[in-house]
């Protein structure tokens, strides 16, 4: 090796050491950050999945659209309930307490418009996501509307029919609430109210169920007149129609 080669090697050696040191330094510095980010990301996913499974899944299992919940279809008989609303061609329907759209979705196939009303934004978000999967003509029929517990967020003479399924036993100021519902119905508008019969049953709430006789009295006080009760068509629920 000649003197020039030795001189070049001596000059390059410190540079090589510096480069190797930099590589080692940044490798050590980046590695913990990557692991930290990955760990936080996994925790976020785990937390999200846990919350969804605890808060959202039980309700979705009950309240998904008709086609994807055959077990509820057996006792709920959604086709019969929807038929109680009458001919929906050209009609605007409010599905009060819509959940994730168990009735909203099938109603949207026949009505001019259906307003899905609920106090839970996450349920309405589910419906909005579902709208992306159905034909645009059907999606445009569906409106989601957030409300609060003590009123249905309906306007005077806004709808031709109101459907309330498994909602009444939740209400506190029931007479006032149903007055708003009555006021929202147009002339000859129809209310269809479905709720659980009192007694021990494998579905529905374990307490706070309201006898249909109490419901009828409240509807009368709220201004409804033509009231009919069907306690035979459904095994666990009664159906009340009122104008």
CATH class of the largest domain: Alpha Beta
Stated plainly, the CATH topology of the largest domain is called Rossmann fold
Rg, alpha carbons: 30 Å
* Portion of residues within helices: 40-55%
Give the uncertain stretches in residue-range form. 25-68
User: What do we call the CATH homologous superfamily of the largest domain?
Assistant: Vaccinia Virus protein VP39
Give me some keywords for this one.
243 residues, alpha/beta, Rossmann fold, 2 domains, seven-stranded mixed sheet, 8 helices, 7 strands, 47% helix
Describe the structure.
The protein has 243 residues and is of the alpha/beta class. The protein folds into two domains: 1-58; 66-242, Vaccinia Virus protein VP39 (Rossmann fold, 3-Layer(aba) Sandwich). It is built from eight helices and seven strands. It has helices at 3-63, 70-76, 78-83, 104-107, 121-131, 136-139, 174-184, 212-221, and strands at 92-96, 113-118, 142-146, 159-165, 185-196, 227-230, 237-242. The protein has a seven-stranded mixed sheet with strand order 3-2-1-4-5-7-6, with helices on both faces. The longest helix has 61 residues, at 3-63. The protein starts with a helix and ends with a strand. The model is unreliable at 25-68 (pLDDT under 50).
Summarize the SSE layout with pairings:
Layout: H1 3-63, H2 70-76, H3 78-83, E1 92-96, H4 104-107, E2 113-118, H5 121-131, H6 136-139, E3 142-146, E4 159-165, H7 174-184, E5 185-196, H8 212-221, E6 227-230, E7 237-242
In short:
With 243 residues, the chain is α/β, with parallel strands linked by helices.
